[in-house]
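Researcher: I'm preparing a figure for a lab meeting and need a structural model of a single chain. I don't have an experimental structure, so a prediction will have to do for now. The sequence is pasted below. Please return the structure as tokens so I can convert it later.
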Amino acid sequence: MDVQERFRELVAGPESAIPLDEAALLVAAADHPVDVAAELDALDALAHGLVGVATDPRSLAAALFGDGGFTGNAGDYGDPRNSYLDEVRRRRLGIPITLSVVMIEVGRRLGIPLVGIGMPGHFLVGAGTGTGAGAGGHDDAVYIDPFHGGECFDRAGARARFERLHPGAPFVDRYLEPVGTRAVLARMLANLVAAHLARDPLRAVAPLRLRLGLPDLPPADRRQTEAALVRLRARMN
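Model: Understood. Here is the structure written out token by token.
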């Protein structure tokens, strides 16, 4: 399997049809050997073990981030392994976005609909958030913070979390809107590129190439990604 080609094939289709779990595993497979089918089976098994235990967003958060042992890697946030879904599943350590992907994909298998919430600087999981532009979520929406023990809060609590993490920064409602699968992948790849550039820059080549495969990458991001790739390739020659 050509990982780059398969990733481009997946993200080129309708956004609602993109398998987030497989695409996220391909991000890992571009860096190191990953048995994608086995990892998908492992997610199936994780969900199967929670049948009857996790029946809604709150109980799923408690099961994964309580007894399940998944937690945020506050001790080494910049470790690239925090951005690889296979490593996050195995180590049960990650950053907000990859822990969110675990929860979203386990929830999907259990029939619990969840979405990614691309709050700047701290990704969340949302339930009952709606999709209206500018709505900022419904009044009864639940927001989950997988990085901090699966803590659940309402819209006011999500805003308070943002303000605590970004003192003095203005909050706008769109920070709590759901984001699509391609946006999740773009953010995962951006985090991974930053992690590699800080530790082993040449390993950033693979995620940079994957990022260029996203069809709706904003022009400014595309130019920046292309420039970074050119610089790294020059170092390799």
